[in-house]
Design brief:
Blueprint (H helix, E strand, L loop, with lengths): L3 H11 L11 E5 L2 E4 L4 E4 L2 H4 L8 H11 L14 H12 L3 E5 L2 H18 L7 E5 L8 H5 L4 H4 L9 E4 L4 H7 L4 E6 L2 E2 L5 E2 L2 H14 L2 E5 L13 H4 L6 E4 L10 E5 L1 H5 L14 H39 L4 E7 L2 E6 L4 H10 L1 E2 L1 E3 L3 E4 L7 H17 L10
Parallel strand pairs: 3-15, 5-6, 5-7, 7-10, 10-11
Antiparallel strand pairs: 1-2, 2-3, 4-12, 8-9, 11-12, 13-14, 14-17, 16-17
Bound molecules: pyridoxal-5'-phosphate.
Length: 406
């Protein structure tokens, strides 16, 4: 058993204080459940922010990683290894995008998209096409490039000046988008479902405006599917559901099922503009990360994507029932598949904390939204159990919280 006081004291002295952690320490997991150091079990409906797609301690993944670790973990991109080509091929088969670049996080995948879009126009001699159009409430990550396309001022303000030339369009106003994209726009970057922005799928009208604006101006389309992609909505990419054909796609989160991996997928046209030395990474696409992603894709192929479609229909139906029972607390249910948001009529944090008290893990985004990103392996029984706890938390939340993890 861990000494809780030590864990918290050591962190408070020596870990950079950029996180506001919930007061619980997890040291084990199994399936959709996490166990705290005090032996209390929690139903995990956030899965490490959409990452633990196969749940915790998945036997097939554990075995494959152990075997990979005892064979070969890392060689860098100086040499070939057997797994990158296979993983890239399978991602290409699933998306129609010809080539993959592997990195270590969603932010890095976005960063590569932004660089590759610039490189595309540079290669074509259109050196003034350096600008980007992003959307209000967008979140693309925290490195300087990705942050420049992230909307919220509290992420941005302390780090100005950022990469210049990013303009923000309203996701609710297709005409504004058309006015902002011009012959200097390298790319439009969009989350098909805004995640941190409050679980907001873009409308069919906006999707259509994005597609037609790209067609008429030549601007490239970057789909940031770090959260919405890798099968979370029941389609491998949510942009496919919307009829969009992005030139570049950023993936991360669920793809490694808990092992850090990001991927930038690009069309053959974009790929042709890139040459050796243009971009790179030491860890990116190493054997451990590729093995994890291959196990994850095996699971999707083995029926998990169908399972996601089935259980997510149940989740959405139950969330709408919940909203109908609590119209004064819940303003809207949003999302697709296993990416769901309950937009409350008040701050969501007390509900998130009340849920933790009751043994359910969810989180807050965009102040008023309770976000649910359960593992793909979640069952309808676990969904029913989670929504019972969430309903209790909504009733209790607002009165503040006490004695968590007691
Ligand atoms: C989480 C997220 C990122 C950043 O991914 P990291 O792995 O945290 O670097 C980028 N874009 C979207 C849409 C995300 O949800």
């Amino acid at each position: 058993m861990i000494d809780t006081t030590d864990v918290k004291a050591l962190e408070s002295q020596h870990v950079l204080q950029v996180y506001r952690r919930q007061p619980v320490i997890f040291d084990r997991g199994h399936g959709v459940r996490l166990t705290s150091d005090r032996g209390r079990s929690y139903l995990d409906f956030i899965s490490g922010i959409g990452v633990a797609s196969l749940g915790h301690a998945h036997p097939g993944l554990a075995q494959a990683l152990a075997q990979q670790a005892s064979t070969l973990l890392h060689t860098s991109n100086l040499y070939f290894h057997p797994l990158q080509g296979e993983l890239a091929t399978r991602l290409s088969d699933r998306t129609g995008l010809e080539r993959a670049f592997f990195c270590n996080s969603g932010t890095e995948a976005v960063e590569a998209c932004l660089k590759f879009a610039r490189r595309y126009w540079f290669t074509r001699g259109e050196t003034s096409r350096t600008k980007y159009v992003a959307f209000r409430h967008a979140f693309h990550g925290r490195t300087m490039g990705a942050l420049s396309a992230t909307w919220d001022d509290h992420y941005r303000a302390p780090f100005q000046p950022l990469v210049p030339g990013v303009r923000f369009a309203s996701a609710d106003d297709p005409e504004e988008l058309e006015g902002l994209v011009d012959g200097d726009t390298a790319a439009i970057i969009v989350e098909p479902i805004q995640g941190e922005g409050g679980v907001r799928p873009i409308s069919p009208a906006l999707a259509q405006a994005i597609a037609s604006t790209c067609r008429t101006t030549g601007a490239l389309l970057i789909a940031d599917e770090v959260q919405s992609g890798s099968g979370r909505t029941g389609a491998f990419l949510y942009s496919q559901t919307l009829g969009l054909r992005p030139d570049l796609v950023a993936l991360g989160k669920a793809l490694g099922a808990g092992v850090p991996i990001g991927a930038t997928l690009v069309s053959s046209d974009v790929a042709k503009a890139l040459s050796p030395g243009d971009h790179g990474t030491t860890y990116g696409g190493n054997l451990l990360a590729c093995r994890a992603a291959l196990v994850f894709l095996d699971a999707l192929d083995g029926g998990l994507l169908d399972h996601v479609r089935r259980v997510s229909a149940h989740l959405m139906a139950r969330l709408h029932d919940l909203a109908a029972r609590h119209p004064t607390d819940i303003a809207a249910v949003r999302g697709a598949g296993l990416m769901a948001g309950l937009d409350l009529t008040r701050d969501a944090q007390p509900v998130v904390e009340a849920a933790l008290d009751k043994g359910l893990l969810v989180n807050r985004t965009a102040s008023t939204v309770v976000r649910l990103l359960p593992p793909y392996i979640v069952t309808t029984d676990e969904i029913d159990e989670a929504l019972r706890l969430l309903e209790q938390a909504i009733v209790a939340g607002g009165s503040g919280s006490s004695g968590r993890d007691a």
